[in-house]
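Now for a concrete sample entry.
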Amino acid sequence: MLHDRVLFIDGEAMVIDKPAGLPVDRPRDRSQSLEDMLEQLTFGFQRLPLPVHRLDRDTSGCLLLARNPKAHKRFGQAFEAGTVVKRYVAILEGEPADEEGAIDLPLIKISTEEEGWRMTGANNGKPARTRWQVLERRNGRAMLAFFPETGRTHQIRVHAAEGLGLPIVGDPVYGKGGPAVMLHAAALTIPREGKPDIHAEAPLPLRFGNIGFGRG
C-alpha cells in the first residue's frame, strides 16, 4: 500500500518511495500505474495529489506529489529552474577509474522501427550535466551516487552508459538487461520561500543488498 511509503507530507506536498515496477503514468497496456492508486494518498483531502515529475517504471525512490494546483505549478517551476537537488544511487557494470567526476553530454532522442526510441549523446542535443561519486566497489562493479544538474529523459542511464562507458546493471535499453534495474532515487530536496525545504530520503531497496551492495 502506498500510504505506507510516504517519506514526507505537509499541507501542500508529499514525497513517496515509489516501488520499482510501478509506472507513474498509465502505460499503453493499461496495467496498474500510480494514477490508479492516488486515492490511497489523499489523507483527508478531497483533491488527489498529482506527481510533479516522473521516475522511470523500473526506477524506485523519491517522487514528489503536489496536494493542490498552486503548489504543483510552483514545484514544477522549481524543477525547470534547476533549484531542486536530486541524488540517485546506481550500480554499474564495471568500475570507473576515478572516485568522482562530472559528465557533460548533451542528449537527443532517436527512434527506429526496429528498436523504438531511446536517448543518446549528441553535440546538437539538449545540454545535460551529471556529477557522480563512487560509494562502493565490489566484485568488479561499483555503486555510485549521481547528482543530475539537468533533468533530461533517461539522463543518468545514458550518462552512465555513454559518458562513463559503464551501463547500469539490469538496464534493458542501454545495458545488458536483467531481472532488475539498479537505479534508485535516494534523496530529494525542494527549496520553498518562507517555508522549510521539502527533504526526503528513500532507503536502498532490497534488490541492492541482494547483490552485495549497501550493507555497510
User: Anything to note?
Assistant: The first strand starts at residue 6 and ends at 9.
